[in-house]
Design a protein that fits this description.
Elements lengths: L1 H10 L17 E6 L2 E6 L2 E2 L2 E6 L6 H10 L4 E3 L7 H10 L3 E6 L19 H18 L5 E8 L1 H4 L6 H25 L5 E5 L5 H7 L6 E4 L7 H8 L5 E5 L21 H17 L4 E9 L5 H6 L9 H10 L11 E2 L10 E2 L3 E5 L2 E2 L7 E7 L1 H4 L4 E4 L1 E5 L2 E5 L5 E10 L5 E11 L14 E3 L26 E2 L6 E20 L4 E9 L6 E6 L6 E20 L6 E8 L1
Parallel strand pairs: 4-5, 4-11, 5-6, 6-7, 7-8, 8-9, 9-10, 10-11, 13-21
Antiparallel strand pairs: 1-2, 2-3, 12-15, 14-19, 16-17, 16-20, 18-19, 20-21, 22-24, 23-28, 24-27, 24-28, 25-26, 25-27
């Protein structure tokens, strides 16, 4: 196999690796029927995909797949296939579950996708992937868990992040032509399982139609717009059926912004309805839509996990039961999750950093189970962090809680999680804009002339980040210096003022060591404050000084970046 790849590299062409198919010890899966009247058949019997995408480790498959089965699901979908897949396949087979086995190609969609492969010229990458995929098809073609092979995930769309204009078109055509090379190679090895390819929007299908004739069916990930897939298929004049490989409620990219300017996440009930509606639309396109694997059966409890997981941290949500009802699982005796109100926070657009606040999120439980509350903060819209951090809170009764606001400014997500002690959880959330604590007195630096040693002007991170942005009174603009020590920022107050307080609001790149000096003439300076132990966030301190000019002298950075300051306030 390696010698064939090497020869292909030397020849500058993609090699389709020939391997004679063997008799399948596992199931024989076929797409049968004709235009608009297709079926997926497994060992001759009709098979409608009722599935979930699979997130846990293969090591957890034996423990968790019985629960997947209890949903009424018959299929799971993966994004990659390798040596660890055998454990997952074995557990799936033991539970009567089939697998849409994925193969990852750059630049795929979702976290960790990475890479900007040149599908026109990079024969080495294509041959490496072709050999890798062929290896695992040969390894697992006889496994009874395999339902079909799925080549790539959202790459036709993802290529727009790498290329533009005519070159983007060239790459999309080359990518889908390569997908066809993979499909032909897979069919040579395994004649008993279909091959498909997933993309993120139906706009990818014309490329498959033109360049990938050897695919047995198309696949698409579609959330809010899933009910429009049927119309797109009918208008596109397609001659192959399709599978929905991800679906569910509206995603972060499909919802309007809330009052704090961040995506308005649907609540638990709206998410549950999203799964129900999606499945109804899939069922409604009989003879063409062959089923769906809804997103997502995972145990992660982070930003994305909260948005989509049916079982975050292993706890069942209302969406879990919506899928169970849709798939016809046995619901007799089910104990259902609590229903939680959207948290209310006084003045959620201006919550002082580090201050205690009152959160109201009353909850009820269908069975009257005793409820336990937890509050979590998420910093996705502050620093890009996906994790959720549990915050100490006091439950005052009736869903009223006391919790301390984060110390860092920005728009945070506040989550209230309510457990019923029976393995169920209800979660609701909202955004909260955390602002610097109010300071008594007048900010005499506000909108005054401000200069600095350097500022970033490279177009990254929202820059140019000029000195004046540190004194403009806004918490979403910043001064950012070059990546070197020392630096300085200076404000002209216009006249000598008596000063009593200073407030510095840092972005992630903060000052560990700095000094504040004052001057009446801009030449002779007096020290008003100094520290060598700054830790970022908000620095709030009293000073006793007077002067017309105030200078922040920065001598040691707290990170490898420059200094980045949202706010430099000086109060009289």
């Amino acid at each position: 196999m390696r010698s064939l790849v090497t020869a292909a590299l030397l020849a500058g062409a993609v090699t389709v690796l020939p391997t004679a198919p063997a008799h399948a010890a596992g199931s024989v899966v076929k797409v049968t029927g004709s235009q608009g009247d297709w079926q997926l058949r497994v060992d001759g019997s009709p098979y409608v995909v009722k599935g979930v995408t699979w997130g846990p480790s293969p090591a957890d498959a034996g423990r968790l797949l019985p629960d997947v089965k209890s949903l009424g699901a018959n299929t799971i979908r993966t994004w990659g296939t390798d040596a660890t897949s055998r454990q997952l396949f074995d557990a799936a087979s033991a539970n009567g579950i089939k697998v849409v086995a994925g193969f990852w190609l750059q630049p795929g969609g979702g976290p960790g996708s990475g890479g900007c492969t040149d599908y026109v010229t990079d024969t080495a990458y294509k041959n490496t992937m072709l050999a890798e995929f062929s290896r695992w098809v040969e390894a697992y073609r006889d496994h009874p868990a395999v339902l079909m092979w799925n080549v790539g995930n959202e790459s036709v769309l993802g290529l727009q992040n790498c290329y533009g204009g005519a070159e983007l078109e060239n790459q999309r055509n080359a990518y889908t032509a390569f997908v066809n090379d993979v499909a032909k190679a897979v069919h040579r090895i395994d004649a008993n399982h279909p091959v498909t390819s997933t993309d993120a929007w139906v706009g990818a299908w014309p490329y498959y139609k033109r360049n990938s004739p050897d695919l047995d069916l198309y696949s698409v990930n579609s959330y809010k717009e899933v009910c429009g897939v049927r119309q797109a298929w009918e208008q596109g004049g397609y001659t192959k059926p399709y599978l929905i490989t991800e679906t569910g409620p509206a995603g972060e990219w499909e919802v309007p912004n809330d009052a704090n300017g961040v995506p308005l996440e649907p609540g638990d009930q709206a998410k549950a309805d999203g799964y129900t509606n999606a499945w109804n639309c899939v069922k409604g396109h009989q003879g063409v839509a062959l089923g769906a694997t809804v997103f997502h059966y995972g145990t992660e409890y982070d930003f994305g996990g909260h948005w989509f997981n049916l079982t975050p941290a292993g706890e069942r949500r209302s969406m879990y039961y919506a899928v169970k009802r849709a798939y016809g699982g046995n619901t007799a005796g089910d104990n259902l999750p609590p229903t939680v109100s959207v948290p209310s926070v006084p003045d959620a657009g201006a919550v002082p950093a580090g201050r205690e606040l009152t959160v109201r999120a009353p909850a009820t439980d269908p069975e009257g189970d005793a409820l336990a509350y937890e509050v979590l903060w998420g910093s996705k819209y502050v620093d890009g962090g996906g994790g959720l951090v549990s915050a100490p809170s006091t439950h005052l009764g009736g869903g009223t809680l006391k919790v301390t606001a984060p110390a860092k400014t920005g728009v945070w997500k506040l989550y209230v999680k309510v457990k019923d002690g029976r393995g169920n959880v209800g979660v609701e959330q909202r955004s909260v804009r955390v602002v610097p604590p109010p300071v008594a007195g007048t900010d005499v630096a506000l909108n005054r002339p401000t200069t600095a040693s350097t500022f970033q002007n490279d177009g990254y991170g929202g820059c140019p980040c000029t000195p004046q942005l540190a004194t403009d009174g806004r918490n979403d603009t910043r001064w950012a210096s070059s990546w070197a020590d020392p630096q300085w920022l200076q404000v002209d107050l216009g006249s000598v003022r008596q000063l009593k307080h200073a407030q510095l609001v840092w972005e992630g790149a903060y000052g560990k060591a700095y000094t504040i000096r004052v001057s009446d003439d801009g030449r002779n300076w007096r020290t008003a404050y100094a520290t060598s132990t700054g830790d970022g966030g908000i620095d709030d301190f009293d000073i006793t000084a007077s002067g017309r000019y105030v200078r922040l002298e920065l001598t040691q950075r707290g990170t490898g970046y420059g200094y980045s300051l949202f706010h430099f306030g000086v109060y009289a």
